[in-house]
Amino acid sequence: MGILTQRQRSDNSIILDGISNSRINESAGGSQFLKEWTRLYDKSCKQLTDCKFEYMQSFRVNIIALDLLDRIERVKELQVEILKVNYRIILQNLDMMGELASLEFRNGIKRSELTITQ
Q1: Structural domain span for residue 24
Q2: Tens digit of pLDDT for each residue in 49-93?
Q3: pTM exceeds 0.85 for this model
Protein backbone atom coordinates (compact mmCIF):
# COMPACT_ATOMS: atom_id res chain seq x y z
CA MET A 1 0.00 0.00 0.00
CA GLY A 2 1.27 3.50 -0.77
CA ILE A 3 1.96 6.34 1.57
CA LEU A 4 -1.12 7.75 3.23
CA THR A 5 -1.45 11.52 3.27
CA GLN A 6 -3.81 13.44 5.45
CA ARG A 7 -5.80 16.61 4.70
CA GLN A 8 -7.88 18.69 7.12
CA ARG A 9 -11.31 19.86 6.01
CA SER A 10 -13.51 22.61 7.38
CA ASP A 11 -16.17 20.17 8.67
CA ASN A 12 -13.73 18.66 11.23
CA SER A 13 -13.22 15.46 9.25
CA ILE A 14 -9.97 14.00 7.98
CA ILE A 15 -9.65 12.49 4.52
CA LEU A 16 -6.93 9.88 4.11
CA ASP A 17 -5.65 9.75 0.55
CA GLY A 18 -4.91 6.18 -0.46
CA ILE A 19 -7.99 4.75 1.23
CA SER A 20 -11.07 5.11 -0.90
CA ASN A 21 -13.76 7.24 0.73
CA SER A 22 -12.47 6.66 4.27
CA ARG A 23 -13.34 9.44 6.66
CA ILE A 24 -12.58 9.71 10.32
CA ASN A 25 -14.67 12.18 12.22
CA GLU A 26 -12.68 14.22 14.73
CA SER A 27 -15.75 15.42 16.59
CA ALA A 28 -16.81 13.98 19.94
CA GLY A 29 -16.76 10.19 20.00
CA GLY A 30 -20.32 9.90 21.34
CA SER A 31 -21.67 12.05 18.55
CA GLN A 32 -20.02 9.85 15.93
CA PHE A 33 -21.36 6.71 17.62
CA LEU A 34 -24.87 8.19 17.70
CA LYS A 35 -24.73 9.05 14.00
CA GLU A 36 -23.50 5.57 13.11
CA TRP A 37 -26.11 3.86 15.30
CA THR A 38 -28.91 5.98 13.82
CA ARG A 39 -27.77 5.13 10.29
CA LEU A 40 -27.64 1.40 11.06
CA TYR A 41 -31.01 1.52 12.85
CA ASP A 42 -32.69 3.29 9.92
CA LYS A 43 -31.18 0.78 7.51
CA SER A 44 -32.35 -2.23 9.55
CA CYS A 45 -35.87 -0.79 9.87
CA LYS A 46 -36.05 -0.35 6.11
CA GLN A 47 -34.89 -3.94 5.57
CA LEU A 48 -37.44 -5.21 8.10
CA THR A 49 -40.22 -3.27 6.38
CA ASP A 50 -39.16 -4.65 3.00
CA CYS A 51 -39.21 -8.20 4.38
CA LYS A 52 -42.70 -7.73 5.82
CA PHE A 53 -43.90 -6.32 2.51
CA GLU A 54 -42.45 -9.27 0.57
CA TYR A 55 -43.99 -11.71 3.05
CA MET A 56 -47.44 -10.19 2.61
CA GLN A 57 -47.02 -10.07 -1.17
CA SER A 58 -46.65 -13.86 -1.24
CA PHE A 59 -50.22 -14.24 0.07
CA ARG A 60 -51.53 -11.74 -2.45
CA VAL A 61 -49.71 -13.49 -5.28
CA ASN A 62 -51.23 -16.86 -4.36
CA ILE A 63 -54.71 -15.40 -4.81
CA ILE A 64 -53.89 -13.98 -8.23
CA ALA A 65 -51.67 -16.89 -9.28
CA LEU A 66 -54.35 -19.02 -10.94
CA ASP A 67 -55.57 -16.19 -13.15
CA LEU A 68 -52.00 -15.24 -13.98
CA LEU A 69 -51.06 -18.82 -14.88
CA ASP A 70 -54.07 -19.04 -17.21
CA ARG A 71 -52.99 -15.84 -18.95
CA ILE A 72 -49.41 -17.05 -19.31
CA GLU A 73 -50.60 -20.33 -20.79
CA ARG A 74 -52.80 -18.47 -23.27
CA VAL A 75 -49.88 -16.24 -24.32
CA LYS A 76 -47.70 -19.31 -24.90
CA GLU A 77 -50.42 -20.88 -27.02
CA LEU A 78 -50.69 -17.69 -29.07
CA GLN A 79 -46.92 -17.60 -29.58
CA VAL A 80 -46.88 -21.17 -30.88
CA GLU A 81 -49.85 -20.43 -33.13
CA ILE A 82 -48.23 -17.28 -34.56
CA LEU A 83 -45.00 -19.15 -35.29
CA LYS A 84 -46.91 -21.96 -36.98
CA VAL A 85 -49.30 -19.84 -39.07
CA ASN A 86 -47.25 -16.77 -39.98
CA TYR A 87 -43.72 -18.15 -40.16
CA ARG A 88 -44.46 -21.85 -40.80
CA ILE A 89 -42.13 -22.81 -37.95
CA ILE A 90 -42.97 -25.63 -35.58
CA LEU A 91 -41.65 -24.82 -32.12
CA GLN A 92 -40.50 -28.38 -31.46
CA ASN A 93 -38.16 -28.17 -34.49
CA LEU A 94 -36.18 -25.31 -32.95
CA ASP A 95 -33.03 -25.97 -30.97
CA MET A 96 -32.10 -24.22 -27.72
CA MET A 97 -30.75 -21.15 -29.49
CA GLY A 98 -34.03 -20.63 -31.38
CA GLU A 99 -32.48 -21.52 -34.73
CA LEU A 100 -34.02 -23.95 -37.17
CA ALA A 101 -32.09 -27.21 -36.98
CA SER A 102 -32.51 -30.38 -38.96
CA LEU A 103 -33.66 -33.55 -37.25
CA GLU A 104 -30.31 -35.33 -37.70
CA PHE A 105 -28.42 -32.33 -36.29
CA ARG A 106 -30.68 -32.26 -33.20
CA ASN A 107 -30.18 -36.01 -32.75
CA GLY A 108 -26.41 -35.50 -32.96
CA ILE A 109 -26.60 -32.88 -30.23
CA LYS A 110 -28.67 -35.20 -28.03
CA ARG A 111 -26.19 -38.06 -28.56
CA SER A 112 -23.26 -35.87 -27.57
CA GLU A 113 -25.15 -34.64 -24.50
CA LEU A 114 -25.88 -38.22 -23.45
CA THR A 115 -22.24 -39.26 -23.80
CA ILE A 116 -21.16 -36.28 -21.71
CA THR A 117 -23.62 -37.07 -18.91
CA GLN A 118 -22.64 -40.76 -18.79
Answers
A1: 5-87
A2: 566 666 666 666 666 677 787 888 899 899 888 888 888 877 776
A3: no
81 and 46 together in one domain: yes
Regarding whether 113 and 61 lie in a shared domain, the answer is no
Same domain, 107 and 76: no
Residue 100 to residues 4, 68, 84, 92: CA-CA distances in angstroms? 61, 31, 13, 10
Do residue 51 and residue 94 come from a single domain? no
